[in-house]
Amino acid sequence: MHPNEEILEQFYSAFQNHNPREMTACYHKNVEFSDPAFGNIKGDRARAMWFMLIERGGDDLKVTYSDIQANDYNGSAKWTATYKFGPEKRKVVNHVVGTFYFQNGKILQHTDHFDMSKWARQALGFKGFLLGKTKFLKLKIQQQSSAALSKYLRAMRSIEEDAS
Q: What are the residue boundaries of the SnoaL-like domain, all occurrences included (predicted)?
């Protein structure tokens, strides 16, 4: 197994086991992450996203992965997350392809690709069915995801300050 395949195996195994600390240890300090829900985020925000998603997913979050491939420079993996979304607790099964670029034994760029309209139908019901293919909904979801991540980071900083 190529060393970069081992990094991806560690990353997804940690995700499966709800261990964001081990996941983000696979990231380069200057990591760049992108997906349809969060858009482009970097560094600490990208790392915090995994903590937030795992915390919010709780015991309902189930992750499977397969087809890990990597060479000296880039790699890919398929993964599926099953979880409950929103106040209505709608079941979402999101099939994702992750692509990666590595530098110095760490993930420098991570892009997750998935069908936003299919996700929206599952997560948002009829509203998602109607608006799932629109740029408006994608932008709205990215704004809400960014706001949730900012709120999460503020809460984490507040906890750290209280502890010191």
A: 9-110
Q: Quote the domain boundaries for residue 109.
A: 3-151
pTM over 0.85: yes
For 93-145, write each residue's pLDDT tens digit. 999 999 999 999 999 999 999 999 999 999 988 777 777 777 877 889 999 99
Structurally, the chain folds into a number of domains equal to 1
d(CA 144, CA 149): 9
Please list, residue by residue across 149-162, b when 16 or more beta carbons sit within 10 angstroms of its beta carbon and e when fewer do: beebbeeeeeeeee
79 in Cβ contact with 63 (< 8 Å): yes
Question: Mind listing the pLDDT tens digit for each residue in 48-57?
Answer: 999 999 999 9
25 in helix, strand or coil? coil
Q: Is residue 157 part of a domain?
A: no
Segment holding 136, helix H or strand E: helix 135-163
- Take residue 108 and report the two structure tokens written for it: 């420098």
